[in-house]
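Q: How would the structure tokens look for this protein?
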Amino acid sequence: MTPFDDILATAVARVGGADALAARLPAAKSAEELRAIPDHRYFSQMSLRIFRAGLKHSLVDAKWPHFEEVFAGFDPPRVRAMSDEALEALLQDKRLIRHWGKMKAVRANAAAFCELAEELGGMGAYLAGWPEDGIVALWGDLAKRFSHMGGNSGPAFLRMVGKDSFLLTDFVVRALIRWGAIDGIPRRKSDRARVQEAFNGWAEASGRSLCEISMILALSVD
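A: Here is the predicted structure in token form.
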């Protein structure tokens, strides 16, 4: 596997210097910052990610104030208590994206948020306590606990809320192959374990966060 300093040098050269690279790097929140975010904000961001999937993000974002209104500010207990009739009525609201499967996922996830609050004290505590060297396992746990959080949705949600994580975008996967971390597209659980191992090694060697390494990898390839 290629040393991270070589990958970094390639990315710096491609974007036009260290300052230009630094300006494009994402930042992860600290454990304390994650714990300070209330569950209704995490719930809103998770729901936003679900509705963004497969659609133009700007279209969904423009409608999001209406979603905040009809889902009571994404207060988990209130959304969990919505009746089938109340949920079905939203399909007539032209201000929203009227996707029945995703609407049902919002209510199902409200119940999951309530269960997580009882179990661990809330999403903030859950994310803050999860070690970054096992982030792939967190993706899997999110997919088990919540509806519509499989595939790339879990990692995207984590990036949105500031939990340190990497993304397996096309550019990152191409970089992982180019720099010798993996042999092909990581489709199996064992493949993702190899990706996690590579990121852990680069993080230890560089002292950088997973999200920074992820972006540097993406910028290291054409």
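The chain has a mean pLDDT of 97.

The CA atoms of residues 11 and 17 lie 9 Å apart.

Upvote if useful.
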